[in-house]
Design a protein that fits this description.
- It is a single chain.
- The chain is 19% helix and 21% strand.
- The chain contains three helices and four strands.
- It has helices spanning 15-18, 55-61, 67-70; strands spanning 10-11, 23-27, 49-54, 75-77.
- The two termini are 20 Å apart.
């Protein structure tokens, strides 16, 4: 819907730019369901944040993503 109305949109989960939205930035949910009885250190339970940018969508919206942002991205979809 955002692309249909030519609106750049950012979402919390990587599945959105993988499906065609502009970008996502958020905590990974991988490993959140680990049993609490399993011994883990506090640092292993810290969420990891990731930035995903879809350059195809940026081009369709007429946007240029700065190189400084692209090099910081965890995934760039071309």
């Amino acid at each position: 819907m955002a692309l249909k109305h030519r609106l750049p949109a950012m979402y919390p989960f990587p599945r959105y730019p993988q499906a065609g939205s502009l970008m996502s930035y958020g905590a990974s949910t991988v490993g959140w369901a680990a049993p609490l009885s399993q011994p883990t250190s506090p640092s292993s339970r810290q969420p990891k944040f990731g930035l995903v940018i879809n350059l195809n969508t940026a081009k369709a919206l007429g946007l240029t993503i700065p190189q400084a942002l692209l090099v910081r991205a965890d995934q760039v979809i071309q």
